[in-house]
């Protein structure tokens, strides 16, 4: 199976109002430099011998690195891991430059994922994004000059958003000819500024029927340009699926490097120090940045593989799960058959999947599996 290497850059110019990801907007260039050096040191100490692998540089905002730091990090990756089957870097419009794009190309990056979220300045302000719709449009065009494999991120269900306004965002995105598009439903995370505004009555989320209309509009519009759903929130041209994310959805093995990064290796989950400064200190002092780990039971491996696999349109094959983990799957089969009898799952060629009409309530179905 394909393995995945994830490197985390936890810094942003300004934290978005909806974000509860492990990231910070408190930093300076000295901290960035120290962090990159710690990241490289951690990588060298942790690297595994893989034949087939992906690389994903995420955040935070990886494009916030200066050109010199980006080149330093990517040159080491090219030295240590010269032949990834896919190499993705996340970027934000406000910090992506032609110089950085040229460095990415020279280092063997194959794919850029641009965090646009919306082309509507009003919604960008609600989300706490610091770029403009016009700025996003121009940076996407520039990125497209360097990379055929360009992914765009959008968010829907934003307070005040209508289906018509989402449709305009989708049309704008499609005009930029992305090979991949992620469309995520806004999730209100506790204690974030946006959640507090909604809870305080200052902002109002779309009504349920509006949200459902938006959810079903997305695959309809994207299919017109050949982008088909392969996971609940992800769409691509044929052959342009994100191979790194497929490692996650197949519950494959991955190594996470950086502050707050998580690894899944040989049936264990490893957790690295969350605080960037503490992470740097541990690495420089020769102390392992891994601060916790979890050994997964056979049933946990089976259950987790089923849950993440049901996010994909391929669905899951219990027999393949049994063979992979050498674990008993009769309990899983009973759960799946029961949900199929209730009309909550469908079986196609011995693979179970969530029917498209029920994707809006996919999380509820997964909770039923977890609680069975």
Question: What secondary-structure arrangement, pairings included, does this model have?
Answer:
Layout lengths: L2 E7 L19 H18 L6 E7 L7 H14 L5 E6 L6 H10 L3 E7 L3 H7 L5 H14 L3 E7 L6 H13 L4 E6 L7 H7 L8 H16 L4 E4 L2 E3 L6 H7 L4 E4 L4 E4 L2 E5 L3 H9 L5 E6 L2 H12 L8 H8 L4 H12 L4 E3 L2 E3 L8 H10 L1
Parallel strand pairs: 1-2, 1-9, 2-3, 3-4, 4-5, 5-6
Antiparallel strand pairs: 6-8, 7-8, 10-11, 11-12, 13-14
Helix pairs in contact: 1-2, 1-10, 2-3, 6-8, 11-12
Tell me about this structure:
The chain has 372 residues and is α/β, with parallel strands linked by helices. It folds into two domains: 246 residues, tm_1862 like domain (pyruvate-formate lyase- activating enzyme), CATH 3.80.30.20; 74 residues, Arc Repressor Mutant, subunit A. Helices cover 42% and strands 19% of the residues. It contains 14 helices and 14 strands. The strands form three sheets. A nine-stranded mixed beta sheet has the order 7-8-6-5-4-3-2-1-9, sandwiched between helices. A three-stranded antiparallel beta sheet has the order 10-11-12, with no helix packed on it. It has a two-stranded antiparallel ribbon with strand order 13-14. Strand 2, helix 2 and strand 3 form a beta-alpha-beta unit. Helix 2 runs parallel beside helix 3. The mean pLDDT is 96.
Kindly report the CATH topology of the largest domain.
Answer: pyruvate-formate lyase- activating enzyme
Strand order of the largest sheet: 7-8-6-5-4-3-2-1-9
Count all strands and give the number: 14
Query: What would CATH call the architecture of the largest domain?
Result: Alpha-Beta Horseshoe
Principal-axes geometry comes out as globular
What oligomeric state best describes the polypeptide chains here? single chain
Percent range for helical residues?
A: 40-55%
CATH class of the largest domain: Alpha Beta
Question: Can you give the mean pLDDT?
Answer: 96
Tally of separate helices: 14
- Which range does the strand content fall in? 15-25%
Secondary structural class: alpha/beta
What's the CATH superfamily of the largest domain, by name? tm_1862 like domain
Estimated radius of gyration: 21 Å
The unreliable regions are: none
Biggest sheet, in brief? 9 strands, mixed
Q: How many distinct domains?
A: 2
Distance between the termini: 29 Å
User: What is the succession of H and E elements?
Assistant: EHEHEHEHHEHEHHEEHEEEHEHHHEEH
